[in-house]
Amino acid sequence: MKKIITTIFQILGFIGIGAIYYYTDSRMGMRRHMVYMNARYESTYHLKTIFIISLIVFIVFLIFYFYKKRRIDFDSIIMILITLAIGLSIFFGKEIFGESFNLISAILVIEGVLQLIKMLGNKEKEDYDYLIK
After folding, report:
1. Shortest CA distance to 108 belongs to which of 88, 123, 126?
2. What does the alpha-carbon distance between residue 52 and residue 102 come to, in Å, rounded to a whole number?
3. For residue 19, what are the CA distances in angstroms to 5, 72, 77, 112, 122?
4. Do 86 and 105 form a contact (C-beta atoms < 8 A)?
5. pLDDT in tens for each of the 133 residues of the chain?
């Protein structure tokens, strides 16, 4: 049940990213609002540092996950793609996403956290084989 709920939230997040990108690119009022919000967020929070720390956490988690599982499954492929998207949004955010790069990067970090919850909550039979023996 938890996996279904997190998947629904992830799909809604990706739809939200598409809507934010579309309306920021096509509507001048949304673009002005994003410029204002970017200036406000950058003066209040250190977003670049937060995004870099989250990228490092996701990479370390992926390394430990692959070391433990020794295989690649669908959840790990999604996590790799989210991690790559966060990395691209950190280093090339303004060129790729335009003025909405801070909001899109924040949504991508939330998507990564949801994927971590889904990966950690995935209890398979082979994870508990040592208890049966």
Report:
1. 88
2. 13
3. 21, 31, 24, 19, 30
4. yes
5. 778 888 889 899 999 988 988 888 888 888 888 888 888 888 888 888 888 888 888 888 888 877 887 777 787 888 888 888 888 888 887 777 778 888 888 888 888 888 888 887 766 655 544 445 5
